[in-house]
Input
Amino acid sequence: MATPDQRPADLLVTGAAEIATLAGGLRRGSAQSDASVLRAGGAGRLAVAVLEGRVATVGPEPEVHARLVGLGLDPADMALLQAGGGTITPGLIDAHTHLAFAGTRETELRLRQEGAGYLDILAAGGGILSTVERTRAASSEALLADARRWSVEMLRHGVTTAEAKSGYGLDLETELRLLEVYQQLDAEGPLELVPTFLGAHAVPLEFAGRVDAYVQDIVQRQLPAVAEQGIARSCDVFCERGVFDVDRSRRILQAARDHGLAARLHADELHDSGGASLAAEIGALSADHLAAVSGEGIAALARAADEGHPVVATLLPATTFYLMAQRHAPARALIEHGVPVALGTDFNPGTSPMPNLQVAMAMATIQLGLSATEALVAATVNAAHAVGLGATHGSLVKGRAGDLVVWDVPRHELIPYWLGADLVRHVVKSGRHVHGAGRVLGPGMGQAG
Ligand code: NIG
Ligand code: FE
Output
């Protein structure tokens, strides 16, 4: 496949009825319901200009034109994209995915319908371990081809950046191959990937009954090699009853930090395992899932945020939906306690074969009680912080990444409302039009009257 042009570009996007800029940084508490929205008044329209891949100016069209002229540019000389009365938001950021794996696990759904538990299937050598077996046997080319397919799917639903975990190798060779797949895919674009090492996703069969020996393997072999190659930005652990307990998770994440990797964890997904408190204690970037978090765990996250070291609660409603769980993450309590909330799909073959973050936003409104605005904040600026890109991504502010989506609705509240509808009219990554019907008008054709 030919590598498309990845160079940052200049682009003028005009004709928007609304722009949710998400200016103002990480949101928590009541600020989670403020998306810093600009609305066009009367017959006027709004515009965004991107120069060399970064946001240059946002506002009413005449002001944007005037600022471009002030920069010595002629708006008529810029590539032009028409928003057609739609809404512009920053490109969505999927803060939690397991993008690369081999095989499918649809048979587990039947087992769960018949009453089997997710962790029982794993303990019997199925679940994650069955994907590990197939992933180890798969070629890097096959893993790349599948991951590419799903990355395109994510992009089509408005995602311009996604966190991507390894974790289906559980041996050094395959873990590195998965991270190399992400490196290659990120270089291809247009989806930008933020790679995470998840060697502690499960205990592989060859270490069955020897959890500490596997932790040792991660700490002494896998982590140093991953860090040396510089192909992961953070390290994740599945901190869960029967998988990795708090002490082992702490050991792994502290070692990761010693190697310069940020910490994140699958925390309190199925049982209250003390994961949220551990995330607060070690200053993790994010604590993910939290469907079974205790009041104590919420309090620990709240304290961390109050003390200026926020751990982003990354909630994954597609997973509780797909696992037919009785409990969903207590999003309202988290927000009320001042914990910043982000969203992800958790795309993976076992608990969330769902690559569509727009649907996760809708689920967050229905299942978790978020407002549409809180869900948008969770899928943009707060997700940027959850993946460690808070200083550059997730908002349409001068100097930030020129990543945006033009939605086929006149205001952002309708994005999670039209459940499952294809609302993405255009996707722009670093100023380049990377998805959408219709063409971008070239320089000199932009006098749209
Ligand atoms: O986030 N629970 C751990 N990891 C994934 C599921 C992985 C799998 O079942 O393959 C999750 O739910
Ligand atoms: Fe996950």
Q: What stands out?
A: DSSP finds 15 helices and 18 strands in the chain. The pocket of N-(iminomethyl)-L-glutamic acid (ligand 1) is lined by residues 98, 127-128, 131, 238, 266, 269, 319, 346, 348-351 (CB under 6 Å). Residues 4-91+396-436 form a domain with the Urease, subunit C; domain 1 fold (CATH 2.30.40.10). The longest strand covers residues 192-200.
